[in-house]
Amino acid sequence: MNVSHKQVGQFTEAMEALLMKMEEVDNTCMEVSRDLAKREFALIVLLGKHKSLIMKEVSDFMRVPMSTATGIVDKLVSKGYLMRFYSEEDRRIVRIGLSKYGQELYDLLEKMMHYFGNHILEGFTQDERDQFIFLLEKATRNLDFKLKTGELA
After folding, report:
1. Of 5, 27, 91, 112, which sits 20 to 30 A from 120 (CA to CA)?
2. How many Å apart are CA 61 and CA 72, to the nearest integer?
3. Is 47 exposed, middle or buried (0-12, 13-18, 19+ CB in 10 A)?
4. Domain-by-domain residue ranges, the chain?
5. What is the distance in angstroms between the CA of the first residue and the CA of the last residue of the chain?
6. pLDDT of residue 27 exceeding 70
7. What whole-number distance in Å separates Cα of residue 66 and Cα of residue 54?
8. Measured between alpha carbons, how far is residue 40 from residues 45, 50, 151 in Å?
């Protein structure tokens, strides 16, 4: 289904306005994480949700070779956001997890996301909330599908 140029423009303007408004309200996470690249920030979020990962999982998530993933993890360890530790099940397996500093950043991000989520959703009816969440999830699935099929790189 073709999307009109006008609709794409309306969408991008609405997204930009929302992101700018969120930053205007509170940009604490951006200030705290200023030393992080996009991929590094994404890995911190992933580890916040999963607690620990092995390097293969990091490489798969980031869609990069193992050597690139290792370099990213090395940087985050040296910056104090991540730590390496041995798996309790198999001492040969090295796991990656958030350090205290990394966990504090993730907790701050979660707090801000809940803050914004509450303030954005409270202006909607229950049906509008359900529809809005459904559409955001569908948008994410659309992008994920495009990434998996190679349409986005």
Report:
1. 5
2. 13
3. buried
4. 28-113
5. 21
6. no
7. 11
8. 9, 15, 24
CA-CA distance, 16 to 23, in Å (whole number)? 11
Quote the tokens at residue 138: 């569908």
Contact (CB, 8 A) for 83 and 100 = no
Q: Would you tell me which CATH number, out of the four given (1.20.120.450, 3.40.50.620, 3.40.50.150, 1.10.10.10), belongs to the domain 28-113?
A: 1.10.10.10
Cα 137 from Cα 64, distance rounded (Å): 25
Asked whether the predicted pLDDT for residue 23 surpasses 80, the reply is: no
- What is the Cα–Cα distance from 43 to 40, expressed in whole angstroms? 5
Stated pTM of the model: 0.73
